[in-house]
Design a protein that fits this description.
single chain; alpha/beta; Rossmann fold; 8-stranded mixed sheet; 7 helices
């Protein structure tokens, strides 16, 4: 998973200065982000935090264009932040999207109604643990991860969570290695403090 995260960030670094590559890269995320918006019910009244935006914050741009929500993007890499700011200004989205250099574990998050954690944001368990210790009950956290990582994260959680997978994504009782490595998006909502987990699938 760390290799994939590293490769994704390097690919974004290369593509961010070139409009044609940007458009191709956005096509990859467009359908996924549309489903994530629907899953969370994001509107222009939401304040969205995107953790792990990278040099090409495609998810934030798609959410901004489709919902009108105000978005803050963070990444711990100063070079990625610099490139992302330049791209956001070039796309005339600087009044709707702000970019900051920070770590997901260190940010104050209570003012956000939606939090999106990128696949390449690492370590995911530490980030989610930090978020769950700070957010209000009912705050929606979207995590892009794989089935194996999600199972590990949730099995150690001290919070009562409701976890919903995107339509057509499912965690089965018996998993083979291929299923465990499958990339999924999961909506995590903290219900309260208890060592319980509600896992359901959108139908």
């Amino acid at each position: 998973m760390l290799f994939i995260s590293f490769f994704t960030k390097k690919l974004e670094m290369v593509s961010s200065p070139f409009p044609i590559l940007n458009n191709l890269y956005r096509l990859y995320y467009k359908g996924m982000v549309k489903k994530e918006i629907s899953l969370c019910g994001i509107t222009d009244e939401d304040r969205v935090l995107c953790i792990g935006g990278g040099p090409f914050p495609c998810t934030a741009m798609e959410i901004a264009k489709k919902t009108g929500a105000q978005i803050e993007v963070i990444d711990y890499d100063p070079l990625a932040v610099k490139k992302a700011k330049k791209l956001i200004n070039k796309m005339n989205l600087d009044k709707q999207i702000s970019i900051k250099c920070a770590k997901g574990q260190e940010l104050e998050v209570r003012d956000f109604s939606i939090i999106h954690v990128a696949f390449q944001a690492q370590p995911q368990k530490d980030i989610l643990d930090s978020l769950l210790s700070k957010v209000n009950n009912g705050t929606k956290i979207l995590m892009r991860s794989n089935v194996k990582e999600l199972r590990t994260i949730f099995s150690c959680s001290k919070n009562h969570l409701r976890c919903t997978l995107l339509k057509d994504q499912e965690i089965k009782a018996q998993q083979n290695n291929a299923c465990l490595s499958k990339r999924v998006t999961c909506l995590v909502e903290k219900i309260g403090k208890a060592n319980e987990l509600e896992m359901q699938r959108v139908v």
